[in-house]
Write a structure and sequence with these properties.
The structure is a homodimer. Chain A has eleven helices and no strands. Chain A has about 200 residues and is an all-alpha fold. Chain A has a single domain, classed as Farnesyl Diphosphate Synthase (Orthogonal Bundle). The longest helix of chain A is centred in the middle third of the chain and has 28 residues. The mean pLDDT of chain A is about 95.
Chain lengths: ~200, ~200
């Protein structure tokens, strides 16, 4: 299927994004007032808004654009690459876990475990994404490969090399699975999700 | 000053808009939990998100873009023009008043008066906007005039004529001032605001 901006034009696609952003945050306001849940709903909405904002996804996207614009003259370091991904995709993955914890009145300890699990899951997802762009084929991935290098983008294979990137991914997946086992007292969907991120082909 | 997209590029300007939208809705989550206010905060945030979304500002903007795209072949009616403005700017003005009412635990009757006041204020603002584009000069307005006609946009003067548009604006301002007098038991800032909208030169 063509993307929204190809099908309906750029202006409408931007407005669709604005509408979805607003509709997402609005979800927290749709349930009837409830003395027990109201303050948890507000806390969860706050966490989501923070993960989206200038210190989260939007901030990461801005730095990603800047890095591409400066390329290849700009700073190309592992620290910068990790910071961009931590903000651009990592914080949204982490807050998805935090919301579940907050709305089920999880302990501070559980919230911290969920957060570390999400951090590792997000990082593994991103390294895998970069690896697929190098190792996969258009047929397998369902979209063009080799795009990152063509755009001069910073990637994990570009900075660490292929072999070290594979090892870094394996390590974060292992860590995520260990945290999942603690959280789920054995096997469960969080562990399966970490496995899926590592094994996915597209 | 140059606009954001001229100064920083279109991608960054779009992200700045997303960030401000998120930051705006986040405001409702920034105050400490409070059993008395939590459900009112959620109700107010819901009203704001609805006023922004597809049935409010964003929906109005989409129809405005469509109308311009169809121009001059599309439907050009007073009903369509009023619907576009009611969604695109009117609902945000109305919800600004609603939030004040909700957070101060106003009665249903007061909320209804605030809403009617906002509806009239928004309509007056928009008719005045169209009139200024026709009647004002670049020096007085601080920006180019005659833009609406050049873009083939639907406007109140274009559909009703100048004289009838002036009368329509005077009528809505009169109505807004009467509602303000009821709400403020005499003179007050809501009445002054209606007066300002009618008298403004830029």
């Amino acid at each position: 299927m063509p993307t929204c901006h190809k099908q309906f034009g750029e202006a409408t696609a931007i407005l669709a994004g604005d509408a979805l952003l607003t509709a997402g945050l609005r979800c927290f306001t749709l349930f009837p007032p409830d003395a027990k849940f109201d303050s948890a709903k507000i806390r969860a909405a706050n966490a989501v808004a923070e993960a989206i904002g200038t210190r989260g996804m939007i901030g990461g996207q801005v730095e990603d654009i800047e890095a591409e614009r400066e390329s290849p003259a700009g700073e190309r370091s592992l620290a910068r690459l990790e910071r961009i991904h931590a903000n651009k995709t990592g914080k949204l993955i982490r807050v998805a876990l935090a919301v579940g914890g907050i709305l089920s009145f999880a302990s501070g300890e559980t919230l911290a475990l969920l957060d570390r699990y999400g951090e590792n899951l997000g990082l593994a997802f991103q390294i895998k994404d970069d690896l697929l762009d190098v190792e996969s084929t258009r047929e397998e991935l369902g979209k063009a490969t080799g795009k990152d290098e063509a755009h001069g983008k910073m990637t994990f294979p570009g900075i660490l090399g292929l072999e070290e990137s594979r090892q870094a991914m394996a390590k974060t997946v292992l860590e995520a699975r260990a945290l999942a086992r603690t959280l789920e007292s054995g096997a469960g969907p969080l562990g399966e999700l970490a496995e899926f991120v590592s094994a996915r082909k597209s």
